[in-house]
Amino acid sequence: MKIQKLLVAFLLISLSIGCSTDSTSDGSSEPTIDKSGNLKALGASAEELLSDIKFTSITIEMVYVTGFKPSQKTIDNLKSFLNTRTFKPDGVTISTRAIASSSLAPFTIQEIANIEKEERLVYNAGDEIAVFIYFADGSNEDDTDNKVVLGSAYRNTSMVIYSKTIENVAARANAPEKSTIESTVVNHEFGHLFGLVDVGSPMQTDHKDSPEGSHCNVDGCLMTANVQIGGPLIDMIGSTVPDLDSFCIQDLQANGGK
């Protein structure tokens, strides 16, 4: 599922093996990996990601096309964001792995899901919940000269970051560092995995920017639609990654988070 479009002017914009079961279904030496917990609708695992009721740790598999490795700033900021907003006593682990280009760009979300099917190694297992983040070497097929997609959270534990598009945005005049834009988009999409806004974590106070889908209507919040847009994003974030506003934080706290 592709998340969010800014309908007026712009279209909006997770270590290695170890998270699999050891059982086999046919007596062969190949392990059977239960993928069902990672193939649900967006927001379906919000409470599981936020709380320690079922899962006490998060492992994130960052798979990137060679040449588009996420910055260390992005990795550090994401880990800080998760530690701040989730109850995971066994911690957050992030791994990165390079793969070859699919040569499919510009992408549909179905093509991204197919790449995940082929490349994803880490799934929920035991008390560990797994997230897959794909850093793509191209754009979304719906991009135009005036509207671009920077990222999409499309399942309960899956997202794509359009790294090539972020690179192009970062090259604009007066744009923040590429790593700041990248980090902002990754944190924003993780907010959607957390069920924001009103897509798995029920609103405690109405703050949904209804015309723009599952976004926050509080200016400056990480979850506003502006976070995923080229020009407005540049104007909004400056040199720092936005944080969640109090309404979004209340929603997460009510659903098991901090």
Which structural traits does this protein have?
7 helices, 5 strands, globular, alpha/beta, Collagenase (Catalytic Domain), 258 residues, 5-stranded mixed β-sheet
**How does CATH name the architecture?**
3-Layer(aba) Sandwich
Secondary-structure content class: alpha/beta
What is the ordering of alpha helices and beta strands? HEHEHEEEHHHH
What is the quaternary state of this protein? single chain
Head-to-tail CA distance between termini: 26 Å
Share in helix: 25-40%
What is the number of domains? Answer: 1
Radius of gyration: 17 Å
The biggest sheet amounts to: 5 strands, mixed
Keywords: Signal
Signal peptide: 1-21
Protein name: Membrane metalloprotease
InterPro entries: MetalloPept_cat_dom_sf
